[in-house]
Amino acid sequence: MKKIxxxxxxxxxxxxxxxxxxxxxxxxxxxxxxxxxEEIGVDGAYFRVHHFARQLASPFPLLSAIGAKTSSIEIxxxxxxxxxxxxxxxxxxSGAADLIADGRLQLxxxxxxxxxxxxxxxxFGYQPGEGQTDADMARRNTEVYLQLLExxxxxxxxxxxMFPNPPGLLRLEPHSPGxxxxxxxxxxxxxxxxxxxxxxxNLMSSTLLTEDTGVPFHQxxxxxxxxxxxxxxxxxxxxxxxxxxxxxxxxxxxDQDRAYFGLRGGDQDQVGHLxxxxxxxxxxxxxEPDKLIEQLRADEAIAAADTLLLTVxxxxxxxxxxxxxxxxxxHVAPALGWR
Length: 339
Fold this sequence. Notes:
By secondary structure, the chain is α/β, with parallel strands linked by helices. The protein has helices at 23-40, 59-69, 87-100, 134-149, 190-198, 217-232, 255-261, 289-297, 300-304, 318-331, and strands at 3-8, 44-47, 74-81, 105-110, 183-186, 202-205, 208-209, 243-247, 249-251, 270-274, 277-281, 285-287, 307-312. The chain has one domain: TIM Barrel.
């Protein structure tokens, strides 16, 4: 059995054929897609977070709205850029969203991806300390956030408060018990996968790895998962970790599918340069169900992960994206033992 969710980048544009022509369109359709996905048996609704772009950004209002309109589907991010976050305020926002969703939040966080603007986090009022990099700042914010999620008091109470205080030091409220175990780190290398395990976070790996050893993407990603689990076993975090991978997978079951994605069947891994280093990008899968099943059976990273996030073409609208997800659940997942 494997949990299957969708991952939306939340694009909007005025381009030809786009059914998301504004931010309002994306937000409303994201809620509708999560509701419809729950109805057909999808396990998770995840959303990308990008600043300074015509894509989804501030995640917690959206996650809260979805939590209020659904009852069973996991709700998450992939990923929140921790260079931009105040970890204390994020504890309050994420705690509230998780309580609204009755404990279904699965938050993916990370150092972030290449930005739309130069050092965009500085516009949010954050910059690395002396001798630190932006990655150091993201990790430090993450460590503070994780510690605060434990729910221990740390703030000295006012001796003459407006409202009565409980005894002892005060913590941030609302506190959501269990959320600490549902934080994921978006890792792009084997080294960061190892670090993720040392911090007691679940592993989230996408279709981009910021290293290249010459082996196929899915094998390199499987190595990353192995490193993570090996390091996790050296610690006692008190819960079993989860691992997700994301893929672009399209089952071609009708003429519309073939028109949109029929030419992608021959996609291969790509190697490029990203922020001064080599990076390996995973291929997309698009084929008739029988062929698709054979291709996916050979993907070592999907086999190693317990959660698969399907990237969806959100600009094609809710109805078509429900079809994309249902096609995988119906024509592909059972043959691979995912259902």
